[in-house]
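Changelog-linked ticket: flavin-adenine dinucleotide example.
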Amino acid sequence: MSQLTTIKSIKHLTHDVLQIVLDKPAGLTYIPGQAVDIALNKPDWSDKKNCFTFTSVPEDDHIEFTIKTYPEHKGMTNELLSSKPGDEVIIYDSFGDIHFKGAGIFIAGGAGITPFIAILKNLEKQNQLSGNKLLYANKTKADIILEDRFTSMLGKNFINILSDEDLEGYEHGYISADLIKKYSEEHLKYYYLCGPPPMMNAVEGHLASLGIGEEFIVKEGF
Ligand SMILES: Cc1cc2nc3c(=O)[nH]c(=O)nc-3n(C[C@H](O)[C@H](O)[C@H](O)COP(=O)(O)OP(=O)(O)OC[C@H]3O[C@@H](n4cnc5c(N)ncnc54)[C@H](O)[C@@H]3O)c2cc1C
């Protein structure tokens, strides 16, 4: 099933990431972590679907997406760079399995943070954030999405890992088994994982080497 909705606001969160707020279509339901196919309702674009994760929470009176743009692909995300309030979007049915199962360590790479934006916002609303940790990998500090928001949500449990910059207060390099071990705690049973395929493969290997069972790994590939 598809429905039409309208862009209410659109702004840059980082140099290449947009936050897009839209009217919430009547009857639309989703759980934090789920995604949806959307298309732009304009000539040449209405049959081109792309998948994005809700970064709003279900009780919000609007829906929100957080979208990394790739101008060089000349695809939908490039088109969104020139979209404006009032533009129409076709939205399909919500889907996706990644959801909160219990306290854990959220491990994200780049735009792979989006399901965790919704899940962590929802935990904050329910007063269940305490103890959960976020390990967030990016190339540089300028690439970190919602750094201030996560810092105020999680404090010292928000750990940034930068591959291309060595800054005080930030881990440097790629996410390694040693790094995951450093932040692991007995009560944090689940490992939530989302990012680009190379990062996912590497981290899944690290979790296996640390003896984490598949049943404690919750993942979504982008
Ligand atoms: C479940 C799920 C949830 C997702 N949620 C989000 C989210 O919340 N936020 C987010 O930012 N992303 C998310 N993604 C990723 C997103 O769906 C797209 O992959 C991404 O936005 C592609 O953007 P594009 O502009 O390249 O669009 P497209 O229209 O898909 O691509 C345009 C063209 O670019 C070409 N192309 C593709 N890759 C390359 C490349 N590496 N180099 C050159 N050309 C290329 C393709 O051939 C295509 O014709 C999610 C993906 C999945 C599977």
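Closing comment: Example verified and attached. The two ends are 23 Å apart (CA to CA). The helical segments are 76-80, 114-125, 147-154, 177-183, 197-209.
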